[in-house]
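call fold(seq) -> tokens
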Amino acid sequence: MKSTEIRAAIVGFGGIARSHKRAYDELRQAGFPISLVAICDIDPEQFKKAQVINIDGNPKCDISAQRLYTGLDDMLKNEDFDMADICLPSYLHRDYAIRLLRAGKHVLCEKPMALSSADCEVMLRTARECGRELMVGQCLRFEPLYLFFKDAIDNNTFGKVRGAYFSRLSGPPHWGFEGWYRDTSLSGGAIMDLHIHDVDMVRFLFGEPEAVSAISYDTFVRWAVINSRFIYGGGRIIVADASWDEAKSTKFSMSYRVRFEQATVKLEGGKVTVYPESDSPYTPELPEANRMTEQLRTFATAVLEGGGNTKNPPESAMLTVRLVEKLRESADRGGAAVTV
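ret:
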């Protein structure tokens, strides 16, 4: 891209889009050459109301500086922008990404990349054909709470990993356009929408497993609760679970516990604690970085400089969706191991 500043537009202004909007604000305030010029949502009420989702935070944001549209055709006709930030329901990711790529836009798309790995492959092919950057919002790859874990593995800080246990829990999603989360054909269930974060993190930390196994049960959607085992050589135990079946009053939580040779490291309540084998527990100092902001910075840098990105390439996002498909196959076979 031969430009000194990126002009961006958000497509879909539900709950997660508010977090994306704040990332643009943070980068702009820090002097990064990016400007959010427009926002599109088919429901004009979305521009007026606060939207609370399971990650909560502050759902309100100032959109007075952006031009607002209720149709993509109108926005494409009237706006000159370089990148589209897709924050639409999962079942729309493939079609809108392809359309925007063919319109000459670079595309940052929320996770999951699509509801099937076959659709992901079409998105990848389209991006290559159009010569445009594509990235998927696997935001934990930019989260300091998880990057501490990654650095400990890469630097052998506490020795080898013996076992790692991930958890991501939420009450039933009551938010979302026309209740799309509650339709398996539109959301893919908790396994594709919620569990995919930890599935991607397992791959990011440990590489591709040899096989997987999973058990699950259904509620208002299929695969609403899932427990997954990732099988690697060397006897390591790598397990992750996710649930959309917690009590309605339950607050969203994400956690991990990892047993290294020389320490146990836990993420609980938004804080990492290290429990050394022969010393007192301590809380490490972590960078004060917003994962959404760093995700956007990485994508925008790839747009400005070209050449893609190595930290979160779209090909990897496709492989994460494919691994979810393997877990789903295992769960439907009663937990049988499935070769990856």
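The radius of gyration is 20 Å.
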